[in-house]
User: Fold these one by one.
Assistant:
Number 1:
Amino acid sequence: MFYSWLVFAHLVGVFGFLIAHGVSVSVGLKLRKERDRDRITALLQLSGATVIWLYVSLGVLTAAGLWAAIGPQPKWWSFKKWPKVSLGVLLFASVAMIAMARPYYRRLKEKMQMRASGVPMASEEELADILQSPIPVVLAVIGFGSLGVILWMMVLKPF
Ligand code: HEM
């Protein structure tokens, strides 16, 4: 019974993560084609406001998932292989996002600021270059790929 509650808490974390991070996923894909500065700023603010919930839900899903996987094992590390690999994939995606998404979107936010003279920090060309960067595509491949692999392991439990 307690195990079922751990799985419940784990899935609350998963649902929360997908709802919260779905905002950044949509914003990340939409920004590539956006050129209106006010809309870019509004989209960046919207995505940024969900990051706290991304981390809260990531913490809940990881803690409850690990607790459910470890359970009452005599040796805590002797739990099955697929939850360990899933945790590794989740960590890999998180580190890749922090290393690539965070600096990229911070730079974009900075470039959306105005100079004291009232001239934008980035010219139209510079802005277009940043928005056309391959980074959001790389993030989408890593993010969707990781989610697919984790879901495959959760459902099929291959090892
Ligand atoms: C296993 C799946 C994923 C994990 C664990 C994950 C995790 C993270 C983390 C930890 C951040 C860093 C937030 C920060 O501190 O600034 C982030 C940001 C971001 N991720 Fe993901 N992510 C995943 C999937 C995806 C997917 C599929 C996309 C799709 C395009 C995506 C797009 C983004 C974007 C655009 C940001 C920047 C948000 C912002 O700064 O406004 N992520 N992600």
Number 2:
Amino acid sequence: MIQDIQPKCYHNEYIPRPIREGDVVFVFRGREVLLREENDCLTFPGDMEVQEKELQYLFSIDDRAFYLGREEVPGYTFQPMRLLRRCTPQDLCFAGMTAWHLYNWYAGHRFCGRCGKPLHHHENLRALACDCGNLVFPVIAPAVIVAVTNGDKLLVTRYAGREFKGLALIAGFCEIGERAEDTVRREVMEEAGLRVKNLRYFDSQPWGYASNLLLGYFCELEGSDEIHFDQEELSSAVWVSREELEPVEENLLSLTGTMIETFRLGKE
Ligand SMILES: [Zn+2]
């Protein structure tokens, strides 16, 4: 999956250092990222090209540090975020998505929500601080991905009105005061009108495109298999047998793709 960058190591401790050779600067605008595409290879601005004095340190992967910039850099153009999926090595894709998560958090937290004064960065924590004492930590939204099985069939969905047209699974945000397992039951009922049992936790995935931490669950159908799907959220929801599922190749970056493939191979 996208976060599996071993043997490289992601360091998210907040220990800023000045930019140096080999480091990477991400500049975002809307849902675009500043990059250069040459011979199918994506590159991002580095230490020699960025004139900006106040880069925001983000994190490191091994010895390479990543920063957030604000200014355009000659020779680079803004391109859709989805191009990040084509980055090689894969840790660059993970870095871009995680940088995007942090970018959105920084951009949305410039002022204190309690007293309205500008926030400043905490010296040694990933947090924004206010003179009034308020401390603001990164926002991560937990959400569930649910593979509902019925014997050798899997409930697969397609989203309504989204750019992504591929196969999906039931998914939804955890509400305040709710256990992840209750989110699973609620979302399956809301989106497909089905009841489930025997919930089994599968794996998790940080998904910075939507500021999520995704929690994957397998569960079994309980009672009627008649689907009544939510037509605002989904364009379709159907039972598909193992044999009918196509191998998932491109989408193994995602938890959803990994779960569908796990089912197809008979491992769940
Ligand atoms: Zn304040």
